[in-house]
Amino acid sequence: MLFTEILLFMLAGCGLGIVTGLVPGIHINMVSVLVIASLPVFADFSPLAVACMIMAMSVTHTFLDFIPSVLFGAPESGTALSVLPGHRMLLSGRALEAIKLTGLGSLVSLLITAVVFIPVVAFLPAAYAFVKPNILYLLIFVCCISIGTEKKLLTAGFVFLLAGLFGFFLLNSSLFDSGIIFPALSGMFGISTMLLSLRGECVIPIQIKAKATLKAGAVLKNSFLGSIAGMMVGMLPGLGGAQATYLVQQVSRKGGVKEFLVAASGVNTANIIFTLVVLYALGKMRSGIVIAIDKIVTNFGFVDLVIFLGVILGAGGIAMLLHIGIGGFLTKKVCGGGNFYNKITVGIILLIVVSVIWLTGLTGLLVLVLSTIIGLIAPLAGVRRANCMAFFLVPVMLYYSGLNFWLMKLVGV
């Protein structure tokens, strides 16, 4: 009976993951809160099965959320930096390959994390104790490399500082809990990208039916890199999928667009899985979905951990099929040449604007406008838009340095 319930709720979670992955503004944390509020409706079912639905939704989401990033430039925190590489492949007629690569990266990363899932429980406390004191130096080193390798050093530094200050004020304000990250990222990496695509009546070519032309060794290497980054996100407070993806980008800079997409897609999938390990091994909750699972399943134990691993593997297999099928279908619908893509892009921009107003009000709309301006400055000035990730990196570095509290007092945030 329990097995049947878990299976049915896993399938329901995969269905929810389709919605959260494809529709801008609907996040897994929002759905998790709604599930918790609706627990009386599920009173006749096992709490573990309900929690498995949330986990299946989250796993499916990490696969499908790359589709709007590649096709439309509508990002979430973990997919923000994939917008530009994915968009470049779209403009060269290889969106189908980009979608296959992101699905492959997520799947391989899921398998890697599943293999080390149980062993990690044993050494996680020691790894956490070692990594946490050194994360500040790693972030500073990576940021120096990022800015230092720009041809326009001062311009890159200006964009980095501007985005960093923007993030510092927003993430330390009362707006942080109101979903303000959605308009901030949508402006810097989504709408700014789409506006540039619309400039000059951009015509999207018919997409090639391409296979994922990347050697198995490169897929394994970059999926492993994404898995390690995802594990760091699961362990460390203040470090999110966006920052981890930025680290992956800087570490794998010698690789190409395809390698980066594989690694970036692995970050979020691995993170979702490792947050469960962190809950069990360290008793810490690093994501909204884990908070929800902890509220639903009391006395979270090792048997629960193993059951969740089975759900993760099952949902991951289903999610891969959904990702390829839905991604291929949408690619054919919106990328058939002509001016149809521009109309779709305008529609996505309007959808994001409406979603921002609905979720965060006029304050969120102001944040959307400001972040769009910041997102436009980087490419128009000839520097990488990745420098806008300072929106997250600067607050995190200030957090680990201990300066965040004093700066907040100084500026009165």
Would you write up a description of this structure?
By secondary structure, the protein is an all-alpha fold. The chain has one domain (2-411). The protein has 17 helices and no strands. The radius of gyration is 20 Å and the shape is globular. 52% of the residues are buried.
Helices and strands, with pairings:
Elements: H1 2-22, H2 28-37, H3 47-64, H4 66-71, H5 83-91, H6 95-131, H7 135-148, H8 153-171, H9 181-198, H10 216-235, H11 241-251, H12 257-282, H13 288-296, H14 302-334, H15 340-381, H16 390-401, H17 404-411
Descriptive labels:
413 residues, mainly alpha, single chain, 0% strand, 17 helices, globular
Quick structural summary:
By secondary structure, this protein is an all-alpha fold. Helix content is 76%, strand content 0%.
- How many helices in DSSP terms? 17
In round numbers, the mean pLDDT is 79
Task: Give the overall silhouette.
Answer: globular
Radius of gyration: 20 Å
| Domain tally | 1
Uncertain segments are 77-83
> Strand pairing plus helix content: what structural class?
mainly alpha
Helix content: over 70%
C-alpha termini separation: 53 Å
List the secondary-structure elements in sequence, H or E.
Answer: HHHHHHHHHHHHHHHHH
Proportion of residues in β-strands: under 5%
The major β-sheet equals:
none
DSSP strand count:
0
